[in-house]
């Protein structure tokens, strides 16, 4: 067992770096700091680090040999997928003693089983690539994130990614049948089973899903596929309050039932940001509304038209004056326009100065109370601050982001991050919610974990970490 904290371990000497490089070949080893740059910083610039090397293995066997050597020499390793994570888990610290293992080259679709509705892929395939492979087999892989062009299945699994389709299909954990994982000592666990029923003891795959690279490196996965919906319709509704969004959700759930495949919320300020900074966007309804709900219904033709149900939902809500105005997309193009308003939201906030972010969930029925209390608290703390609460209403998952007051210094605003987080998280805890609904813990929330986990939970988590990674080489300093 190596008890030296990872950050106090020496930078690997050149001879050791050469041994690592020999495993993947010099061509797939990145040694120069300037060439490593894209791997050392995350896209919002919140975290930046240094690394001894970036290794780009091309096979499970190479990953296995890398970890065996790292384990033997106590070298800390940072697994990296598409580097789109939002909590800094994929970025090394600034010690310069860590080796990044980038899965980008492991991007093969291994098999697609359209009878068993399952697909086996390398961990480095991008989410977009996985969705395309499913589509080519006339199936749906429902996980969908705005980052899907870059993020990888291994990263999705390691963060248990969510997104807009969770409401109908569940998060990444629920979309996974099997895994292949390289353990800290280099052994390979082949758990690539596609069985729907398998009660033969502990479900090991669930340990690695959401582990943020701290228990093993995922190299392959068996993912669930679904029939491709034959019809899909989208609507956008304008409402005067979050409470009304809640009432609309109740109607949509009741009438839409299983065909309700997304229910997202966007505040007016979010639409304004998108209109100001996004390409090819336009105001979706005639006049402005304080809140917008984006609804998607999909299903098979035999189940009856998704369109009829969507119309029934909106008619009931309009008659009850829950909704002020609404539009159903008349074409695929218009549906994409509606979705673009939601998908651009993450990106456009950056054009409005500093943004203090929260990725929280509360019981759905308590969202109106949460938003009201959080906004009151935050604007009292920083007069002029602009709350932008948006996200996956149907899952109780709100991205409670706060833009700086337009006339405030960005640095001064961002310096209040911890204080604002603490105040918002206190409300979340009071409502029995979670301080990380879908992005994970990483570096950003590591120190907050003891506040939200019981001593028993922390003990169990540390015991698992010690058993699977006794030398502390796997993404040390993240999560735990
Ligand atoms: P990375 O960022 O590279 O890594 C994330 C974590 O996983 C790190 O801890 C890393 O060490 C670990 N890891 C990566 N690959 C492996 C592997 N093969 N084995 C073991 N550990 C590994 N997330 C959501 O959940 N829902 C959203 O709606 C959403 N929207 C987003 C929108 C935008 C515009 C952006 C930029 C991000 C969004 N995200 C969202 C966050 C991000 O895309 C997800 O967390 C994604 O799952 C990360 O995948 P990645 O391949 O980029 O992983
Ligand atoms: Zn999200």
Description:
With 480 residues, the chain is α+β, with helices and mostly antiparallel strands. Helices cover 34% and strands 20% of the residues. The chain contains 17 helices and 19 strands. It has helices at residues 14-24, 33-40, 60-73, 127-136, 153-159, 166-169, 205-208, 242-256, 268-277, 306-319, 332-343, 345-348, 367-381, 410-414, 417-430, 449-452, 455-468; strands at 29-30, 53-55, 77-80, 99-102, 109-113, 118-122, 139-140, 176-182, 188-191, 217-224, 226-227, 231-239, 260-267, 291-299, 325-328, 355-356, 359-361, 386-392, 397-403. The strands form 5 sheets. A 5-stranded antiparallel sheet has the order 5-6-10-8-9. Strands 1-2-4-3 form a 4-stranded mixed sheet. Helix 1 (14-24) runs antiparallel to helix 3 (60-73) and helix 13 (367-381) packs antiparallel against helix 15 (417-430). The model has no long low-confidence stretch (mean pLDDT 96).
């Amino acid at each position: 067992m190596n008890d030296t904290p990872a950050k106090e371990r020496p930078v690997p000497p050149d001879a050791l770096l050469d041994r690592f490089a020999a495993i993947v070949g010099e061509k797939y080893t990145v040694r120069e700091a300037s060439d490593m740059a894209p791997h050392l910083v995350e896209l919002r610039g919140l975290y930046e680090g240094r690394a001894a090397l970036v290794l780009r293995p091309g096979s499970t066997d190479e990953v296995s040999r890398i970890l065996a050597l790292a384990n033997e020499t106590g070298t800390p390793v940072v697994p990296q997928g598409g580097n789109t994570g939002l909590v800094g888990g994929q970025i090394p610290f600034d010690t310069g003693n860590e080796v990044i293992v980038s899965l980008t080259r492991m991007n093969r679709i291994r098999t697609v089983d359209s009878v068993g509705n399952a697909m086996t892929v390398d961990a480095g395939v991008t989410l977009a690539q996985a969705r395309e492979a499913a589509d080519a087999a006339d199936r749906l892989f429902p996980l969908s994130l705005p980052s899907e062009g870059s993020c990888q299945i291994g990263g999705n699994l390691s963060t248990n990614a969510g997104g807009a389709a969770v409401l109908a299909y569940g998060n990444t954990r629920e979309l996974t049948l099997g895994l292949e994982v390289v353990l800290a000592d280099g052994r390979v666990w082949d758990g690539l089973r596609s069985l729907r029923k398998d009660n033969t003891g502990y479900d090991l795959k669930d340990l690695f899903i959401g582990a943020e690279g701290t228990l093993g490196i995922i190299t392959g996965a068996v993912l669930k596929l679904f029939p491709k919906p034959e019809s899909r319709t989208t609507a956008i509704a304008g409402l005067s309050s979050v409470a009304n969004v809640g009432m609309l959700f109740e109607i949509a759930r009741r009438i839409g039932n299983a065909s309700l495949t997304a229910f997202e919320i966007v505040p007016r300020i979010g639409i304004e940001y998108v209109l100001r900074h996004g390409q090819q966007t336009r105001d979706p309804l005639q006049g402005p509304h304080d809140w917008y709900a984006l609804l998607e219904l999909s299903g098979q033709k035999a189940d009856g038209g998704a369109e009829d149900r969507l119309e029934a939902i909106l008619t009931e809500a309009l008659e009850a004056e829950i909704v002020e105005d609404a539009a159903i997309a008349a074409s695929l193009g218009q549906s994409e326009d509606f979705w673009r308003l939601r998908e651009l939201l993450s990106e456009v906030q950056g054009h409005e100065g500093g943004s203090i972010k929260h990725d929280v969930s509360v019981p759905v029925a308590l969202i109106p109370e949460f938003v009201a209390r959080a906004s009151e608290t935050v604007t009292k703390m920083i007069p002029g601050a602009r709350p932008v609460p948006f996200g996956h209403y149907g899952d109780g998952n709100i991205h409670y982001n706060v833009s700086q007051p337009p006339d405030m210094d960005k640095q001064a605003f961002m310096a209040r991050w911890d204080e604002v987080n603490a105040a918002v998280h206190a409300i979340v805890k009071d409502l029995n919610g979670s301080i990380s609904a879908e992005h994970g813990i990483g570096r950003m929330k590591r120190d907050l974990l003891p506040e939200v986990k019981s001593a028993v939970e922390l003990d169990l988590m540390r015991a698992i970490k010690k058993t699977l990674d006794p030398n502390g080489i796997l993404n040390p300093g993240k999560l735990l």
